[in-house]
Amino acid sequence: MSHSQAEVTQAEASGEFEPRIVAFLCKWCSSAGSDLAGVSRMQYPSNATPITVPCSGSVSPMYILSAFKKGADGVLVSGCHIGDCHYIEGNFLARRKIHLVKELLGFVGIEPDRFRMSWVSAAEGAKYSNVIKDFVEDLKPLGPQNKMKADRS
Amino acid sequence: MINIQDMRDTARGLLTKKEVRAVIGYRRSTNGMLAEPVVITDPAQADELIWDPTCFHNLSLYLVEDRKFLTHVRKTADAPIAIVAKGCDARSIVVLMQEHYFERKDVYIIGMSCEGSGVLDERKLAAKGIRATDAAFDGDDFVFATAQGEQRIAAREVMADRCLECREPFPKEHNAVLGENKTGRELNAPFTALHRFEELDAGARWKFWEHQFERCIRCFACRSVCPMCYCEECVVDSISFPVTGQTSAEEKANRVRWIERSATRPENMTYHMTRVLHLAGRCIDCNECERVCPVNIPLRLLNNKMEREAREEFGYEPGASIGGPSLTASFLDTDPGKFIR
Fold it and tell me: What number of C-beta contacts closer than 8 Å exist between A and B?
């Protein structure tokens, strides 16, 4: 069990709700951004589990739905700023796809705050920590996500 | 007004001259009023073909089946296959060609204009308590043959919702076409049902969908009937996972299963949302999925939501052109991005 997971579990044991966030970070920008936040020793909540993907455009809606199904309280997709994509147009494609996913989640009645997208460049460690802070703040009042979570008991 | 004999003559002519190898059309089913799909290869069978308000099936599904069959038997077609297509069916054929599932020369489209009318919604007719043995178009009315004699009903009252909202009752893509072009006749504004549903707040929407997703029995009828769901392997089944004598139990257990087959609410939700996302920009609103659903889940709302998003936010119209880009494989600089932080 990694350090961050241990902290979350500890907080859960103390009774306070700690949301679990699955963060799909693009390899070239956001992942490096989160690294920068780490090496710069910025303080931000440890609720996000980062998953590095080659490009935000490679995030299939399937990943997002599957994360919710496996019990994520929030899902974040983060990539390079528009125009900065390593693969030239990956984030343009992501923007379209993610827009559809977001609209659909809202349509069936899942709280819109549970799903978020951001652009974080490799130099924006501070922005990454803010994105996570804001996300956790917004998720706490919503409580655990039970609408899509599969019952594995 | 379409003369059925014209359609039969067209089909007979094509088969006699061997311009096509088969005609996919509708014939009277053995179950009273309803039409059923038929594939005819003999010119003499052309008189079996019919055209009436119960021809609601989207026959382009059989073009997909035909292509799958040809691939399976490793044969190439010597002649195109002809298909009777309404406005919506023609659009779905365009989407299939846009995705290079087959080429334009492989198919001969006998377009049927719905003119001022559309197809019947059986449920609406049943709600009126009418049991008919035959149905026919007559101007803006449907004429039903019942035990009490002929009954005439305004088409608007029993027409399928999607036909009321149809923006393109005329098949633009065709080789031959019957009936007049009455595009723009919109009887109801597009997305009327969707707008009505969206007036509910998020809590009420969730209550509604929670109930609907709870009821799904995962029979996959919606997937089987959809001409766009042609993948060899669906993300739901993982059937091509090779299981040999050497495959360990661990390997089998650890393979990626995005969606389990159990019919529980979270799995059903994931299935339906995946389905609708895979159909975004491809679904042309033939509404066959909702019609075949044994538990009447209103799938059209989901499909329409994606269709409207594509139309309003990205200016994308599914089935508009064969050479055009597809929705999720293209982008514009002006795509909305305000939701991104």
Answer: 108
